[in-house]
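Quality-control log, excerpt.
Job 1 of 2 completed; input and output follow.
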Amino acid sequence: MKYYEEDDKIVLEDFDSFDVEQTLECGQCFRFNKLGEREYVIIACSRVLHITQFEEKIEFYPCLREEFENIWINYFDLGRDYIEIKNILSKKDNILKKAVDFAPGIRILNQEPWECLISFIISQNNRIPMIKQVIRNISERYGTALGDYFLFPSLKQIEKADEKELMSCKTGFRAKYIIDAIKNVKSGNVDFEKLREVSTSGVREKLMEIKGVGEKVSDCVMLFSMGRRETFPTDVWVKRVMEYFYFDGADTKIKDIHSFAEEKFGEYAGFAQQYLFHYARMFKIGAK
């Protein structure tokens, strides 16, 4: 990977396994807008970042070297060797090889745990356009304006929100879950820093103490914001995909899917989930 600073932008060259569209559009994050062909704006890490991908380079702006090195390299997981991961997964079976080959530029983001938690609470039984709209509504009501955009609210900014206010942001039944998440994080019962030292199963159990947070939401939070790449988030859609690919279409319990994923994919289960999920979603495999 090579990059250099030019005016108020970072130009990334000589990179591999990074496609901005594939990474943003694979269902792992919601705070982005598509401005044009391979051109996006992202609201993350208390910043607004424009990204434009060309054939042989990617431009990040406004962005200086220090910010790129201290924030965005980690956010986009650019320090990880995805070629090795894809080679390992492609050798597992032909299904995974096709999924990897279809979207070889997916990288798993390292998002902020607080925002990721609330985002995936909102995601339950919801379509991506509506998820994005609800998060935008909450940000505009409680967050800080930054140019034409609003940052996701900090705990302090949203801690006094009540259920009625959140309902006005179109959260629906999820408002009470957001309220409980706020209480758990504010009280310190869910402390993201301390959870870094806890086992994956322990983190899952702690997150599931929040009302409305089940295995799927907790696993998404762990995979997309806490570096637990061995997790395999399984919602109804992923369940159908796994049944289609690996269980001859038979109805299969989620715990059995998790056991299968742990045994077959091991520490790379989260990467496998993203490649399989995106591949199946694009071709509507397992859809009903």
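Job 2 of 2 completed; input and output follow.
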Amino acid sequence: MADFKATSVQRVAIIGSCGAGKSTLAQQLGRRLGLNVIHLDQVYWQPGWIEPDPQTWRQQIRTLAAKPTWIMDGNYSGTFDLRLPIADLVIFLDFPRWHCLGRVLKRIWQYRGQTRPDMAPHCPERLNWQFLWYVWCFPTHNRPKIVQALATLPRQSVVILRNPRAVQQFLAQFQSCSSLQLDG
């Protein structure tokens, strides 16, 4: 885990499987650090689960990433090159597939027919077998891309959290902090 001491963290990227708790961690960390939280699902999806044009999407990410402070939660690995190199801290929630799948199923049940708070308007939760398969296959199909992207980050602080307890221990560092400090 990174040692927090010298330089203020202004930009935080949180990545990991669906159901790992990226949005929840972003909200909790945002409150503790006083940073604006950007849920990439809210930016990406248009009403009715419509995907944006790829060029428009990348431009939106460029604009958001150029802001001086943020916490962005979401994978969207096609935009890692725009976000991760300028993030002061990258948090990878590397949770087991069963844990993530269980959380996704719970979320589907909890918000069935409704739009959850971290999702774009008019994109209600739904049971989607293709999505469940994506979550199940995440460790074999998507995790290697993330590990590779993290390995290429120059002088980056990367924190890998593998379970909810590790997340709580990580958050406990910021109970009374007004800003996050990293070794420079």
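Post-run check on job 2. The chain is about 40% helix and 15% strand.
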